[in-house]
């Protein structure tokens, strides 16, 4: 365990399956600071519209969005995702919701509302926040900005393993195709596309386990803001 020598915002961006979530959880545990999974928030918002059978790509989706309350909580040391106060942590980890989240994330009103919420959850404490736009839009002045990349086969394999572990029936090639489609959609959308911030440090996680990538980032944090061992 380490202690940050000063208040610090650590923002981690990158595409699907690069290891953002596992490494962010590792950092949050190692530093005992809050963790915000912004992708989970887009997923929960998408789930609302899937459950209500409302077309996510409908440009007028704004008018329904005031009925959508997405929140993140920590319960028994685990990160819980709430949609209108219901625990949807497991329900949001399907391929349908992945694609729905990518679709809904194109909507500027939805983005504006979720970014406001993310900044509010972060408050004034140290935080590790991960997503597609946390280094560019949510916290462009973050103390530490990391952009993770990985070989497409490694990324697809990670996502496939996650889905299988969550008891989804999926096919590897299908997961890989979906991932490529989602990458294109996320990096070409008009509002807050997935791009590497100029001042973000790029780390290729291909072949790394979480500890290796996590420790590379801890070294960067130590160099930039200072860490004390506790
Ligand atoms: O990281 P993830 O796979 O849980 O994200 C799901 C989708 O949500 C992703 O394809 C695009 C969208 N997203 C976004 O637009 N901005 C973020 N900060 C996080 C996710």
Give an overview in words.
By secondary structure, the chain is of the alpha/beta class. The protein has helices at residues 20-31, 38-51, 62-65, 95-104, 108-122, 134-138, 152-165, 172-188, 210-224, and strands at residues 2-4, 9-14, 34-37, 70-75, 78-83, 86-87, 127-131, 144-149, 201-204, 227-229. A five-stranded parallel β-sheet has the order 3-7-2-8-9, with helices on both faces. A three-stranded antiparallel β-sheet has the order 4-5-6. Strands 1-10 form a two-stranded antiparallel ribbon. The chain is globular. The structure holds 2'-deoxycytidine-5'-monophosphate. Residues 16, 38-39, 42-43, 98, 101-102, 105, 131-134, 182, 186 line the site of 2'-deoxycytidine-5'-monophosphate (DC).
Kindly provide the radius of gyration, computed on alpha-carbon positions and rounded to a whole number of angstroms: 17 Å
Oligomerization: single chain
* Largest sheet strand order: 3-7-2-8-9
Helical segment tally? 9
Low-confidence runs of at least 5 consecutive residues: none
| Main pleated-sheet profile | 5 strands, parallel
The bound ligands are: 2'-deoxycytidine-5'-monophosphate
CATH classification, class level: Alpha Beta
Strand percentage: 15-25%
Query: How far apart are the termini?
Result: 6 Å
Average pLDDT across residues? 96
Helix content: 40-55%
How many structural units, i.e. domains?
A: 1
CATH architecture: 3-Layer(aba) Sandwich
Can you identify the CATH superfamily? P-loop containing nucleotide triphosphate hydrolases
N-to-C SSE string, H for helix and E for strand? EEHEHHEEEHHEHEHHEHE
CATH names the topology as: Rossmann fold
Give the structural class.
Answer: alpha/beta
The strand count comes to 10
């Amino acid at each position: 365990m380490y202690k940050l020598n000063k208040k610090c915002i650590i923002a981690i961006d990158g595409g699907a399956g690069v290891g953002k979530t596992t490494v962010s959880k590792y950092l949050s545990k190692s530093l005992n600071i809050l963790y915000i999974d912004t992708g989970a928030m887009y997923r929960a918002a998408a789930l609302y519209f899937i459950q209500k059978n409302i077309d996510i790509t409908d440009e007028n989706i704004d008018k329904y969005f005031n009925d959508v309350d997405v929140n993140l909580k920590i319960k028994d040391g685990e990160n819980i995702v709430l949609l209108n106060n219901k625990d949807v942590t497991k329900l949001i980890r399907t391929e349908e919701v992945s694609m729905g989240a990518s679709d809904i994330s194109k909507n500027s009103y939805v983005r504006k509302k979720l970014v406001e919420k993310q900044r509010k959850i972060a408050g004034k404490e140290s935080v590790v926040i991960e997503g597609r736009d946390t280094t560019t839009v949510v916290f462009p002045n973050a103390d530490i900005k990391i952009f993770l990349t990985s070989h497409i086969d490694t990324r697809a394999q990670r996502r496939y393993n996650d889905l299988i572990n969550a008891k989804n029936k999926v096919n590897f090639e299908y997961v890989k195709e979906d991932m490529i489609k989602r990458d294109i959609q996320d990096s070409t959308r008009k509002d807050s596309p997935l791009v590497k911030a100029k001042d973000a440090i790029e780390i290729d996680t291909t072949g790394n386990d979480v500890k290796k990538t996590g420790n590379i980032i801890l070294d960067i944090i130590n160099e930039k803001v200072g860490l004390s061992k506790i």
